[in-house]
Automatic annotation (TrEMBL):
This is DUF4868 domain-containing protein. InterPro entries: KwaB-like (IPR032359).
Length: 303
């Protein structure tokens, strides 16, 4: 359930996210009652679509290849949620009616709602469609003639990419969340912290070369973020990890108690830790190694 009552919206704010030089700032724009109603309808449509896709969404994982429309979630206190959390918790955002004059700098638009119990909901949409109409030639009928629309026209979408309540970010379009949340930059910036945590959990692994590689390779940085979020990391057994690397063709060097990963096999090693490399033995004496593009843990059926 969402910690907000969509049928009891009391106030609505509208705004845009804009690249202001080196800053990514959020500005509010005044809108009338009709636009506020439309924004509320968009939020309701978003939640209805999410529930049709799944009432039990899985957690968003940066290393996963999510589909275009998929209901996933991320806890609001997750470090990858920091930009969207800051927007959700922001109060007294600047009102700038000129924000829409800088359409090329806009990366998203948003609505902030309050319900009759004082709870907050923030809805965000990547602004591609919102800006696209500005490049079109629009006409309207005036009397007996068609005329070019001279004023600026903006088109709202049918729904939002994500909804943020007090506990979590419910995501409908993972790519929209990644774009609006500037997730690529956040994941790369989190490499050092993620490695420090993993080093504490796996003291027998030499992470120096892995950290250096991941700071310039986004896919490796995504794997590190995903691995860190797994509760089972600290339970990984050193010998089992060595065996898994050997079985899946990942070249490592054993120096005393320390495992050193060959530079060419860093991605393979991260795939092992992220449970994406595995071996199947169906044909006698012919083990087969595979890489999983997606990872979903199978649940044991009750007997």
């Amino acid at each position: 359930m969402m910690d907000f009552e969509l049928n009891a919206i009391r106030t609505v704010q509208f705004g845009v996210g804009r690249d202001d030089g080196d800053e990514h700032a959020f500005h509010c724009v005044m809108v009338d009652e009709a636009v506020q109603t439309a924004l509320g309808e968009m939020a309701a449509e978003t939640w209805a679509t999410m529930r049709q896709l799944s009432n039990d969404p899985v957690r968003y994982e940066p290393s996963e290849k999510h589909s275009g429309c998929e209901h996933v979630y991320l806890p609001l206190d997750d470090e990858l949620a920091v930009r969207m959390r800051n927007l959700h918790e922001a109060v007294n955002l600047d009102i700038d009616q000129n924000s829409l004059d800088y359409t090329e700098a806009m990366f998203c638009y948003f609505a902030k709602f309050t319900d009759n119990q004082g709870r907050y909901l923030t809805a965000v949409r990547r602004s591609t469609q919102f800006k696209g109409v500005l490049k079109s030639r629009l006409i309207w009928q005036s009397g007996d003639a068609l005329r070019i629309v001279g004023d600026k026209i903006f088109k709202l979408d049918n729904d939002f990419d994500l909804l943020i309540d007090s506990q979590r970010i419910n995501i409908l379009r993972p790519s929209g969340f990644e774009f609006a949340g500037k997730l690529q930059e956040a994941i790369l910036a989190a490499v050092v912290g993620n490695v420090a945590t993993l080093q504490a959990d796996l003291p027998f692994v030499q992470f120096g070369g892995i950290q250096q590689y991941a700071t310039t390779h986004p896919r490796a940085a995504r794997y590190l973020a995903s691995i860190r979020s797994q509760q089972e990391v600290a339970k990984i057994d050193r010998q089992h990890l060595i065996d898994a690397c050997g079985a899946t063709g990942v070249d490592i060097t054993i120096n005393g108690e320390e495992l050193i990963v060959n530079g060419r096999d860093i991605m393979g090693f991260l795939e092992v830790l992220d449970r994406r490399r595995y071996e199947v033995k169906l044909v006698p004496d012919e083990p087969e190694q595979y890489r999983a593009p997606s990872r979903t843990r199978l649940r044991k059926e009750a007997s």
